[in-house]
Amino acid sequence: MYPLFLVLILGFCYSLSIAPSLTWAHFSADGGDLISAAITGGVPHPSGYPLYLILARGFQFIPIGDLAFRTNLLSAVCTIFAALLLYAYLLRQLSDHPLRQWISFLAALAYGLAPLVWGQALVTEVYALHSLLMMLCLHALSLKESTLNEWARGFVFGISATNHLTAIMMFPLLALGSDGKLLVSPAVLFKRFLGVAIGLSLYLSLPLRAYFDPPVNWGNSSTLEGFFWLISGQLYHQYQFRLPLADVIQRLGAFAGFLLNQYTGLGVLLGIYGLISQPPRRVLIPTLWMATVFLLFAIFYGSSDSQVNLLPVWMAFVIWIAYGLLDIFSALQDRPKLSISLAGLFFAALMIRIPFLFPSVDASKDFRARDFLNHAAQVIPQNSLVFVDGDEQIFSLWYLQFALNQRLDLAIIAEGLLPYKWYRENLQYTYTYLMMPPKDKPQLSDIAASNSGRAICYISHDEPILCSQNR
Fold first, then answer.
1. Do 319 and 459 lie in a common domain?
2. What pTM was estimated for this model as a whole?
3. For residue 2, with 0-12 CB atoms within 10 Å meaning exposed, 13-18 middle and 19 or more buried, which class applies?
4. Which residues constitute the domain of residue 218?
């Protein structure tokens, strides 16, 4: 009954607020890139996300809504499954408590309704699947030791890293046994890391996709150099540990505000209390490790959307909330009616909070991407060269052209990618009529001069579309 209620409540909330098409809400600028890569058999931005591509393509066959909506739906389903796995995980860990179902249900529901989690459930991005896989890793760690379980445990960790590279930070947990103590058996570690290698082998699908020269083909991973450039996330190394100290301090302060926004003051107090109440080692070590590494990564990673990396932190924290609830209910075990009444109050508080959260997470009315594409399709002249700057604009135009097969007359050129040889080669394969100047770092004027007779349009973030005739 509790899992059914969990699905119904989260499904209802997500269905009312999910983005109906391509959206820029909740840090989902990459949506057009991911959707286009999935439907064309292409390779999106680093690290390539092969697991996400397979699942997204499957959802794109669902015969409801438009293409972007179907891909958004993957995030909603992943988040619901993550909440269900969280419920099952807590149910197993709290097996001796009479109110374990209530505690597990409340914690899973609190996770699914946390604003950052809810927002990521509504858009095309890899983070909802990432959260599901992190929860699956916690489950894998709790498996009892056996030959089959060692392979499976490693495989879960490996396949998680094929969706998001930060899952590699969880790999040290493979040195733990199901009781949370350090393993000393080289044979067991070997089996686990062989399982990891099998999971990671999904990355080998990227060179195969790149071999057929799809229009979205970051890095051209059919070459060895391109493959390692892609899967290592080399493009984003500039963001790692480059923040000034003042920004780090500011982010540390902002984290407290983020945490309060997710779980309210009462939830934060319960989580802190649950953490210091000494949960069993098998729970404490993995969750504390997961929360610490992802918190540090989010704080020190220099991108403007780094807070999406906090989803595993919120997952670990809600597990601590469950242990805080466990202590409270254990103290009231001689008063069952009061315990049940208190559980009901916690549930009511979660329900009452929903309408207050809804306006801040609702993506159902975010039409910025749609309006941009409609405007661009109307004002850009036929057969134009379109120079674009800004992820939202570039990836939205890719979605228009490569995923929806509209305005195929346009040559869409991402300014920021022109220094890369693989991108210039990809442009010439995609637009066979395009004349590229033989330079390592061609300027926009060089490309315009090589393609005289075509109109030139310039698109950048928050700027009007400027077009002129190229003579």
1. no
2. 0.95
3. middle
4. 2-361
